Amino acid sequence: MRKLYRIGLAAIAAGLVMVPQAANATPGTGVTAKVLAEYTTGNTHFINREITIAPGGSTGWHYHEGNLYGVVIQGTLSHFNSRCKSDGVYRTGKQIVEPAGRKNVHIGKNLGKTPVILNVTYVLPVGAEPAVDVPEAPRCDAR
Questions:
Q1: Between the CA of residue 78 and those of 3, 47, 59, 108, what are the distances in Å?
Q2: pLDDT class for 93, splitting at 50, 70, 90?
Q3: How far apart are CA 92 and CA 74, in angstroms?
Q4: What is the signed CA dihedral for 126, 39, 133, 102, rounded to 10 degrees?
Q5: What is the pLDDT of residues 26-36, one digit of tens each?
Q6: At 94, is the secondary structure helix, strand, or coil?
Q7: Which residue from 36, 72, 97, 117 has the least number of CB within 10 angstroms?
Q8: Which residues pair with residue 95 across a beta bridge?
Q9: What is the largest CA-CA distance in the chain?
Q10: Is residue 15 very low, low, confident or very high in pLDDT (cuts 50, 70, 90)?
Q11: pTM score, whole prediction
């Protein structure tokens, strides 16, 4: 996984593009994202983003069509799976990997008092969005 992460970052560094962009997951709240770099090679599209989640904010329920590799730059990210169970608490300096696919629906939340800042690299099929929104998990209050 680390090798893929490094390959993705190296590929992105070769083709920097600066474009601000809103986060792409509903019903996300308090989330902003800034594209730091994008690069396409063959059938793979790499996107590197800085994502900020305000205190009390969340990404909304979603999944990715490609793998996601991230590092927490600031704060603590609380991560929940589609069964509303905590599947990770990621503090500053910790890495997070979100595998691709519809079976990997999840939500990230900032349950702390300071903004969570993530540096995230998406490794996607060409034409795929960074995130695919899904309805909220039934009877779920992921806290």
A1: 25, 23, 11, 6
A2: very high
A3: 5
A4: 50
A5: 578 999 999 99
A6: coil
A7: 97
A8: 71
A9: 45
A10: very low
A11: 0.79
Q: What is the pLDDT of residue 85?
A: 92
For residue 132, give Cα distances in angstroms to 3, 54, 60, 106.
Answer: 25, 21, 10, 11
All structural domains of the chain, each given as residue ranges with its CATH number in brackets, are: 2-133 (2.60.120.10)
Task: Write the pLDDT tens digit of every residue in 46-83.
Answer: 999 999 999 999 999 999 999 999 999 999 999 999 88
**CB 36 within 8 Å of CB 48:** yes
Amino acid at 112: G
Residue 67 in tokens: 């793998």
Identity of the amino acid at 54: A
- Rounded to 10 degrees, the C-alpha dihedral 117/104/7/41 comes to -110
